[in-house]
Amino acid sequence: MGRGIKLTEAEWDALDRRRFSTPSADVFRNCLIVLMSDSRETIAGIAATVGCSAETVKRIRKLYRQGGLQALQPIKPPGRPSQATPAFLAAMKQVAEGGDSTKSWSPGATRDAEQGRVQSLSGHGLQARPKCSTGLSAAQRLGVNPGCYCGY
Q: If phi over 0 gives left and psi between -120 and 50 gives alpha, with beta otherwise, what is residue 151?
């Protein structure tokens, strides 16, 4: 027989409250795994019911045993560091606060305004990059090759 988790009534209530109060599907799933581990359900049965692998069930059980309720919150991996220079960030902040009326970020900007934006971006060491090369951005219409991150 496997080593399930034996919960006290207080632990069960805390897990149940956390499960129904979280907006995170991962935390909901993790709490459910621990709650189901208190029953005689097998690891494979829990995995099938919850829709995850048996390894995930084992990992969540181990996390709960070692760290309790707080350990069920997933740790977000670090993202890619920003490549924006301090000068560019300052210029963006000034435009966002409306302090520089020569730079407009509205969708209905004219070609002259688009040219000013592209020059402003490249003057601060950052090129405008569209989400996908399948659509033309203002920079592409002006002959600047901004590149693409999507892989198409």
A: left
